[in-house]
Fold this protein.
Amino acid sequence: RARTKKPIYQSTVRTNKHTDPVWEVRWNNDESTGTLNFYSISSDGRVSNWFLLKSKLESEEVMELKLMSGTSGGEDDETSLAGLAGGLCFDFNMQTEHLFLVGTEEGRIHKCSKAFSGQYLETYEGHTMAVYTVRWNPFHPKIFISASADWTVKLWDHNSRYPILSFDLAQAIGDVAWAPYASTTFAAITSDGAGGSTSGVVHLYDLSVNRNGHICEQKVVKRAKLTHVAFSSTEPIIIVGDDRGGVNTLKLSPNLRIVVTRTEDTDPNK
């Protein structure tokens, strides 16, 4: 808009900016507020809602990520709260918009609500290292997936504290994404190939074909770390980003893009 490097909006100490790295931001699709706004999550342990006003950016705290200490899976009365957990990723449920998931540095996943900012609705146990991505399934609002530095991708039902399925990719996983055309297909990215040399690999899974392993594995780049993966919403294409500034596009072969017939029950836009 203007030939200047200065941003139009910028968070400041006065607007309660994050004090640690911000790992993910998401636009708020709820138009009832009447103002453009988005959410952010940071290693400082806060989820914030930011409003784009006429001349400034204002924030509202949505959740403080209380750090849970104690034995994994122990009783509530044996678990104490101390400090804040570093937030790394989040995702909002498309059908129940007040529900959202948070992945943390210590490996826990929390289910939260915009209406209850002081407590978790549920905590999911299973990962032993940082959770880099959590994503709700676009077809089934009770199902979500997670990717972690502990080399695993896990599939969950949000009504159960423990994973339904777990896939060990033998390398730290940078990101995972659901396909927009089928409820059982997802892609994950790892930073190291089977040979041990640093490279970026995309793994494609279809649970309707194979529930135990991937149906396709493709090396994308050499001597670079893959950072993000995304499916095109309209074309049979996967886009992958790397830490050297590259954006790589991959076209899915016909056997990897079997489209499901959407009904009123499975259409995520209904």
Observations:
- The mean pLDDT is 84.
- The first strand starts at residue 22 and ends at 27.
- The two ends are 36 Å apart (CA to CA).
